[in-house]
Amino acid sequence: MAAENPVERLLSLKGEVSSLPFPADEKELDALRVKYLGKKGAVSVVSQEMRHVPAAQKPEAGRLLQEIRTAVEGLVERAETEIKRNRVLREIENEFFDATLPGTAPEFGSAHPISAVMDEIVDIFSGMGFQVEEGPETESDLYNFEKLNFPPEHPARDMQDTFRLTGVDKILRTHTSPVQIRAMEKYGAPLAVIAPGKVYRCDADVTHSPMFHQIEGFVIDKDITMGDLKGTLQAFVRRFYGQDAKIRFRPSFFPFVEPGAEVDVSCVLCGAKGCRVCKNSGWLEILGAGMVHPNVLSAAGVDPNAWGGFAFGLGIERLAMLKYGVDDIRLFFENDMRFLRQF
Ligand SMILES: [Zn+2]
Fold this sequence. Notes:
343 residues; alpha+beta; BirA Bifunctional Protein, domain 2; 2 domains; two-stranded antiparallel sheet; 39% helix; elongated; binds zinc ion
């Protein structure tokens, strides 16, 4: 081969490519591409041989090589277009368009179950004349504990319970109760406030999440009694759980109320007959409440001799779990569409 005149070899290759048959399909096109343009294809081989061409013949050899390359590349390009066009035409011919098939409908979003429950509760209390207030999620120890009558040794101040921010003298609020102080300082008395929001505690298992939602409610007025608290909560559970829902109070302790109570609602899952969720008691604990402690009124600049009040706080996740029969709180925050679609 080396002895052959390079220009003659190029001329014969040119003759060969000028009479190449038009590839009929992808397979033939691929074969053509490999045979001439591939790494070991004819055009590549002669390109490499160009360096052995005597100087006098170089211009002509270069021109021939360029013509050959252009011819092959042009053929490949035309064939590609033609084959593709034929394929599309074939597909259109074979295609059957069924205009009666249903289309793909867009997916509609909906409120997250936590948001839905929170909105519903806020709606119920708004209807009773409560105004909606919000407070900061990063709080000071002063508002989260001190002004709410938490003694310095109270376990809620423990590092294990409270998230403390590094570098600043702030914590993530552990409850929505600081809004009581903030609202009283802002508006004075009388006052009826509902305060929904996120709260944080260093705790995580099937019924605890490090971030969860609370709703705080409180009324400050003259001659407020435990009866007002009970009537308000009874009206709330009837709206939320249905006319048959009953409540009961059990004595309890929270630093910011005196007296304090835990409030149960008759089990909505078994109709108070006793089931696994209510541990056969027929009652479910849903919130903490009580009469606002005089120290809290004083700390917020409200005269405890002239005014009194009641307050309550409820956990949204717990209410949502009971309402929908969900037994793992983490499901609310994993955003698995299969879970969320059920609501
Ligand atoms: Zn039950």
